[in-house]
């Protein structure tokens, strides 16, 4: 099946839907008061209002916001592309999202309470209050900032991909993606993605439901679709979904992605912007609905094979499938859904990274809105550089590279909540060791997310992020023991500090 060329109808519908979303988000400060006429007015400083939405988002907005920044261009572009190229291995994203929700239910309300009581806006704020270390605060902040750059880059690739599918080539699609994201975030702050995330979700649901109903009808049903897909994918002995040598990388990538998911500054921003701990628990119960949608989206990679889509650019799999099956105007609508699906989370990511710069990396804490906007713009420029200079074979590799970096904050942020006698010097030593080890492996492996290991007759490829986290934890525990023995410290001297409000 040959994809049709996009016509004016496709371009017109795309521009109408995408621009309307940007305008709604950018002008949110004008129309949001109309939604809150019956609510008591709560006053917040401008920095907290821009970066955390005033910490007043209820269950519905938090559900759309957290789901919106958790399910991104990674979901719509990168996962089907990986399924198209590798088959069942690409479905590792499903178990990881299932693993992460109990983690949110159990851990995130406690983090939210600590952040609310201490007036903290970032993970680095919490770590500094907990351990009283400026160095550890910087380590966590820089990890979050560096990790989110390739993730934002992936969103820019998502927007660029659909603009390219509309027939535009060269640097224009990438510049279009960058300018759209910059304007949307600069003008709207966190209220822009929070109040337009429902538009993104509705558009994605329409596109996905249409795809899983109409595409199989065109291809003779799901049975014919799966049969056609197996003829294009590598044969796996025994009728298994993944081959034996893919089992360990499948499981370890799912586990490392689950650990990393809510360490990113953007996902944590969505959590900290909730109005209560119960709001977070309610969302943990209902967020798995997104996993069902993710599974349906992953099937698009198999549908592309059945539809005869042949492309050397894996990111073009879904756009080419939509052009081949849908009428031109509806393909334009689906492209707009993908672009908005990248715009909303990219905006939250940029705001989360800007919060890190303003609160933790600059020498003095600042609530300046203009400063935060400039910091967010600088983050997006950095992400643009990742798109231009990083040579990732698959867009999903950019997200997994960020995962290796952000996982190194797990001991300080999550293990720091446990009654363990962890000291700041030990955590800093573990963070440095894990980061250097993980990035070194990524460099040697050409940005591949797994690394081959062999010992005692066992050999397999294991998630690089999980290997680096293992090194991090071992170094942290050993250094912690050495420091306690060297100093003869009593347990009480190494207990974490109580949460405290940071002085501006």
TrEMBL record:
Could you cite one Gene Ontology molecular function of this protein? transmembrane transporter activity
Q: Which Pfam families match?
A: SSF
Q: Which UniProt keywords apply?
A: Membrane, Transmembrane, Transmembrane helix, Transport
In its keyword annotation, does this UniProt entry include Methyltransferase? no
Question: Its membrane topology, per UniProt?
Answer: Multi-pass membrane protein
- The transmembrane residues are 12-31, 60-83, 89-108, 138-159, 165-190, 202-228, 248-273, 285-309, 329-353, 374-392, 398-420, 427-446, 466-487
Q: Return the Gene3D superfamilies for the record.
A: Sodium/glucose cotransporter
Keyword Acetylation among record annotations? no
Where found?
A: Membrane
Q: Which PROSITE patterns match?
A: NA_SOLUT_SYMP_3
The record's annotation in InterPro entries points to: Na/Glc_symporter_sf, Na/solute_symporter, Sodium:Solute_Symporter
Sorted alphabetically, the Gene Ontology cellular component annotations on this record are:
plasma membrane
Matching entries from PANTHER family are given as:
MONOCARBOXYLIC ACID PERMEASE, SODIUM/PROLINE SYMPORTER-RELATED
Name the family.
Belongs to the sodium:solute symporter (SSF) (TC 2.A.21) family.
Name it.
Answer: Sodium:solute symporter family protein
Species this chain originates from: Komagataeibacter xylinus (Gluconacetobacter xylinus)
């Amino acid at each position: 099946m040959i994809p049709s060329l996009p016509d004016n109808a496709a371009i017109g519908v795309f521009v109408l839907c995408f621009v309307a979303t940007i305008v709604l988000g950018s002008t949110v400060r004008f129309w949001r008061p109309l939604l809150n006429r019956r609510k008591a007015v709560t006053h917040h400083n401008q920095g907290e209002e821009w970066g955390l939405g005033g910490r007043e988002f209820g269950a519905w907005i938090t559900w759309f916001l957290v789901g919106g920044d958790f399910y991104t261009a990674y979901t719509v572009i990168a996962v089907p592309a990986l399924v198209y190229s590798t088959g069942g291995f690409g479905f590792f994203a499903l178990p990881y999202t299932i693993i992460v929700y109990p983690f949110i239910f159990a851990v995130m309300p406690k983090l939210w309470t600590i952040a609310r009581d201490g007036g903290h806006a970032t993970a680095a704020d919490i770590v500094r209050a907990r351990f009283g270390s400026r160095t550890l605060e910087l380590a966590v902040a820089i990890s979050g900032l560096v990790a989110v750059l390739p993730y934002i880059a992936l969103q820019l690739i998502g927007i660029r991909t659909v603009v390219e599918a509309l027939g535009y080539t060269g640097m224009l699609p990438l510049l279009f993606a960058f300018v759209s994201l910059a304007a949307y975030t600069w003008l709207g702050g966190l209220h822009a993605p929070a109040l337009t995330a429902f538009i993104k979700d509705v558009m994605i649901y329409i596109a996905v439901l249409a795809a899983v109903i109409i595409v199989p009808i065109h291809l003779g049903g799901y049975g014919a679709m799966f049969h056609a897909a197996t003829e294009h994918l590598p044969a796996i002995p025994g009728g298994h979904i993944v081959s034996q040598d893919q089992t360990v990388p499948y499981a370890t990538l799912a586990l490392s992605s689950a650990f990393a998911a809510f360490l990113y500054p953007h996902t944590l921003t969505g959590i900290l912007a909730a109005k209560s701990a119960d709001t977070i628990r309610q969302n943990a119960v209902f967020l798995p609905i997104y996993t069902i949608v993710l599974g349906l989206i992953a099937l698009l990679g198999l549908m592309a094979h059945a539809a005869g889509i042949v492309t050397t650019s894996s990111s073009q799999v879904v756009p080419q499938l939509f052009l081949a099956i849908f009428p031109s105007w509806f393909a334009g609508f689906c492209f707009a859904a993908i672009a908005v699906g990248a715009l909303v989370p990219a905006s939250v990511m940029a705001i989360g990274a800007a919060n890190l710069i303003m609160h933790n990396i600059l020498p003095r804490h600042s609530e300046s809105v203009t400063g935060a906007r400039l910091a967010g713009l600088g983050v997006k420029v950095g992400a643009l550089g990742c798109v231009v200079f990083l040579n990732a074979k698959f867009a999903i590799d950019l997200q997994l590279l960020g995962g290796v970096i952000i996982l190194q904050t797990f001991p300080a942020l999550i293990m720091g909540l446990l009654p363990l006698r962890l000291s700041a010097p030990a955590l800093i030593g573990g963070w440095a060791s894990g980061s250097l080890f993980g990035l070194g492996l990524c460099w040697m492996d050409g940005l591949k997310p797994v690394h081959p290991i062999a010992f005692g007759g066992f050999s397999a490829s294991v998630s690089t992020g999980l290997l680096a986290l293992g090194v991090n934890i071992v170094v942290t525990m050993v250094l912690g023991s050495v420091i306690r023995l060297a100093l003869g410290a009593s347990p009480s001297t190494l207990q974490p500090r109580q949460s405290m409000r940071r002085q501006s």
